[in-house]
Amino acid sequence: MLLKCQPYRLEFKHPFGVSSNIRKETPCVFIKIEAENRIGYGEACLPIYLGEKVEETLLFFKKSKELFRNYDPTLPLNFFLNEVDRLATGHHAAKAAIDIALHDLYGKILNKTYSQMMGIPKSKPRATSFTIGIDKEELMEQKIKEADAFSILKIKAGTTQDKELITRIRKFSDKPLYVDVNQGWKEKEFVLEMIHWMSEQNVLLIEQPMATDRIDDMAWVTEQSPIPTIADESAKRLSDLEHLEEVFSGINIKLMKCTGLREAVRMINFCKRKDLKIMLGCMAESSCATTAMAQLMQFADFVDLDAPQLYTNDPFIGLKYDKGRVVLNDLPGLGIAPNPEFLSF
Ligand code: MG
After folding, report:
1. Are 310 and 165 contained in the same domain?
2. Is-contact 45 283, C-beta < 8 A?
3. Ligand 1: centre distance to CA 232 (Å)
């Protein structure tokens, strides 16, 4: 089994603003794993806030190559995923890339789609939210127009002017909103007041309103919140969820945080058992990782898988968008392939 990697820079159509920074591109590393004349593809998406850098991700892949040298096709997928997870702590995006590539590869070898391989129903097309980054009023109007096909907008908030932001958006659109605060709000009384105000503006959920260490305050807010509160930065892997049961109403599961599809499925099962809402999200990823996550849409209460729409140079072909809905194909594995116009490796 052979693992090769290729660093890449995904370029945004518009500079992308969140409460902490504005950026024009997202670094990532694509990988391919070859065995039995099949190729599985994977992606480690590395936005700065994830804290994982290209160089250390490449080193992790170098280390994991050793594992794949001893490939035996009778070994289950889980064997490799366990070994990869044990190689080092952290490196969640790199681990996700390998998890994605192996699911794609095994599906292709078995000539089965992901849902056939896992024995789960194939997801029907689902409406996704479309993210509008923080920007000047003229540009926000333009972005909202570009999002015409999408029935839900996701707003990046977390500044001191969030009411003005929502009021501005309401000049151009009355669509339901998801509001992602990215830990930007401080006092619990302020947070609750903001959530009440937002719930009256057709905001359907609030994501990560406060810093990750504000556990008690967050639980206090959730108890009184009229709309679901969703953990993002607070909930990376399965092990984080036990402490969040009474703290948030739901969890935003992302492959780059949780190390891949295998753990995402475990998190979904945990959420179902504990009656937590399930949101499927993505970092600012290409169609490679986003198509992988879309395989699990059938389990989601909220789908937030719009990232490939934000780029001019998405180097993968996979999911499609039809009238604001995410649609999967029926190709074996995860149904992903590089677009030779942008990437050949
Ligand atoms: Mg978020």
Report:
1. yes
2. yes
3. 5
Residue 18 pLDDT level (bands cut at 50, 70, 90): low
Domain CATH for 81: 3.30.390.10
Tell me which residue range forms the domain holding 193. Answer: 126-338
Report the separation in Å between the CA atom of 57 and the middle of ligand 1, taken as the mean of its atom positions. 22
Q: Examine residue 209 and state whether it is found in any structural domain, yes or no.
A: yes
In which region does residue 275 sit, left (phi positive, over 0), alpha (psi from -120 to 50) or beta (all else)?
A: left
User: Are the beta carbons of 206 and 234 closer than 8 angstroms?
Assistant: no
Residue-wise over 168-187: b if at least 16 C-beta within 10 A, else e?
Answer: ebeebbebebbbbbbbbbee
Query: Which residues neighbour ligand 1 (ion) by CB within 5 Å?
Result: 180, 207, 232
Look at residue 19 and tell me whether its pLDDT is greater than 80: no
Ligand 1 centroid to residue 150 C-alpha, Å? 19
Q: Is residue 71 domain-shared with residue 153, that is, in the same domain? A: no
- How many angstroms separate the alpha carbon of residue 329 from the centre of ligand 1? 27
Whichever domain contains 269, its CATH number is 3.20.20.120
Taking only the tens place, the pLDDT of each residue in 192-223 is 999 999 999 999 999 999 999 999 999 999 99
Question: 340 C-alpha vs ligand 1 centroid, how far in Å?
Answer: 31
* Cα-to-centroid distance, 252 and ligand 1 (Å): 7
Q: Are β-strands 177-180 and 152-156 bridged in parallel, bridged antiparallel, or unpaired?
A: parallel
Identify which has the larger pLDDT, 132 or 194.
194
Determine if the pTM surpasses 0.90: yes
For residues 140 and 34, what is the distance between their CA atoms, to the nearest angstrom? 43
